[in-house]
Structure formats: structure tokens, C-alpha cells
């Protein structure tokens, strides 16, 4: 479970095999640049397989720019992919869920990120808790197919042209936006502690 999501490319391959909405993503190296360009086109994103906080993510708009920048990303972060650029609104979604061993979602929080730092691509600095049944279903279905147990933190973009949601990644850890969940009424640390020791988890008002 953890091994699938900690490598961003492996997780995208899992999504592809299981019909989970995600951006088109291909491994990128010196031998398959032309193939990646044909399949994904421009603009696109060079994305490290292992990174945090948008580090190493590089937008490219041409073959020359891709050839000029991808080696820098590989040298600094290791293996990487070329990913479809999702033209989205000026916000994205952070979906936090806790799935128990019997497959129940004990609690969730959906955060609409309306401001980031750095501004163009970074961690959330201003967000709003929202309800979104479609997003909740997409993320729950993904966790069911992973047979996930514990907390999961999804980053999701919404296409500007047709409104489709695309899962970008799962962070298999407690996220920095945990405070927003707590303010909205969901106490994930309590859920983690109680479920881990086998005690009943109370219902929360989100």
C-alpha cells in the first residue's frame, strides 16, 4: 500500500490500471523523450518521483525547454516523469480521509486551497473547508482499491474546460493542513489514536 503511493509514478500507474481519474503520466529519461512528447505534448510538467511541497516540479512548453531542464531535475531529485499539465482554476483541493480496517470512512475533510506559497506552486496558506460528494466518492474508491488503512491526504485538481477531477498524488502521512480539519470539527489525531488501540471512534460534526 505505502510502496504504491510513495513513488508518484507508481501511483499514477496504479490509477491508470484501476480507472482512477489522474493526469496522463509517463516515466521520463533520455531514451523516451520523443515518445513522451507525442503522448503528452505541451505544456507539461516534469515531476520527480520522490519530492515534497512541489519541489522539483517544472513546467515546460517546448521540446527545447524539456531537453534543457529535465536533466537538472534528475540530477537533483532522481527519477522523474513527464505529466499532462492540467489547466485548472486558481485553486485546488486537499481531501483528507481516515479509512478503518473494515473499509469504513470514519471521517473526512475536504479543503479548497485558495492561496499557496510560493504563489505559483507551493503549500497551502489559505483554505476553506467544503462539501463535495463527487470528490469524496473518487477518493474513497481509490482507497478501497488500495485496501488502505489509516489517514490519507489527496491533492486533486479540477480541469478548467470540463470540470473533471484529477488526483495528483496521495501523501501517506498527516498533512500540514491538519489544523484546517481540526477547525472544521474533525480531530484526526484522536481518530488515529483511538482506532490504533481498538477503541470506538466518536462521530464528529463537520
Could you describe the 3D structure shown?
A hairpin with a 5-residue loop joins strand 6 and strand 7. The two termini are 28 Å apart. It is globular, with a radius of gyration of 18 Å. It is an alpha+beta fold and 206 residues long. It has 7 helices and 9 strands; from the N terminus they run ααβαββαββββαββαα. The strands form 2 sheets. The protein has a 5-stranded antiparallel beta sheet with strand order 7-6-5-8-9, with helices on both faces.
Topology:
Elements: H1 2-6, H2 8-17, E1 25-28, H3 33-40, E2 44-48, E3 58-60, H4 63-77, E4 80-84, E5 92-99, E6 105-117, E7 123-130, H5 133-146, E8 150-158, E9 165-171, H6 178-183, H7 188-196
Antiparallel strand pairs: 1-4, 2-3, 2-4, 5-6, 5-8, 6-7, 8-9
**What is the C-alpha radius of gyration, as a whole number of Å?**
18 Å
Strand arrangement across the biggest beta sheet: 7-6-5-8-9
Largest sheet, in brief, is:
5 strands, antiparallel
Strand content: 25-35%
- Summarize the helix and strand pattern as letters: HHEHEEHEEEEHEEHH
Q: Terminal Cα separation, in Å?
A: 28 Å
Low-confidence stretches: none
Structural class: alpha+beta
- Approximately how much helix is present in the residues? 25-40%
The count of β-strands is: 9
* Global mean pLDDT: 92
Overall body shape: globular
**Tally the helices: what do you get?**
7
Quick recap:
The chain has 206 residues and is an alpha+beta fold. It is 33% helix and 30% strand.
Amino acid at each position: 500500500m505505502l510502496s504504491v503511493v510513495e513513488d508518484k509514478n507508481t501511483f499514477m500507474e496504479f490509477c491508470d490500471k484501476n480507472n482512477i481519474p489522474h493526469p496522463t503520466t509517463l516515466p521520463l529519461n533520455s531514451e523516451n523523450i520523443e515518445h513522451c512528447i507525442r503522448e503528452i505534448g505541451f505544456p507539461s510538467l516534469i515531476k520527480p518521483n520522490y519530492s515534497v511541497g512541489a519541489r522539483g516540479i517544472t513546467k515546460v512548453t517546448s521540446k527545447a525547454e524539456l531537453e534543457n531542464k529535465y536533466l537538472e531535475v534528475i540530477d537533483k531529485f532522481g527519477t522523474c516523469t513527464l505529466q499532462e499539465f492540467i489547466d485548472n482554476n486558481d485553486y485546488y483541493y486537499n481531501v483528507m480521509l481516515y479509512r478503518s480496517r473494515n473499509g469504513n470512512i470514519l471521517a473526512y475533510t475536504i479543503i479548497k486551497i485558495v492561496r499557496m506559497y510560493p504563489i505559483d506552486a507551493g503549500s497551502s496558506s489559505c483554505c476553506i473547508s467544503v462539501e463535495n460528494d463527487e470528490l469524496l466518492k473518487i477518493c474513497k474508491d481509490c482507497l478501497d482499491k488500495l485496501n488502505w488503512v489509516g489517514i490519507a491526504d489527496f491533492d486533486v485538481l479540477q480541469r478548467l474546460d470540463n470540470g473533471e477531477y484529477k488526483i495528483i498524488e496521495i501523501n501517506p502521512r498527516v498533512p500540514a493542513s491538519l489544523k484546517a480539519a481540526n477547525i472544521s470539527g474533525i480531530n484526526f489525531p484522536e481518530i488515529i489514536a483511538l482506532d490504533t488501540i481498538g477503541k470506538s471512534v466518536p462521530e464528529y460534526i463537520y
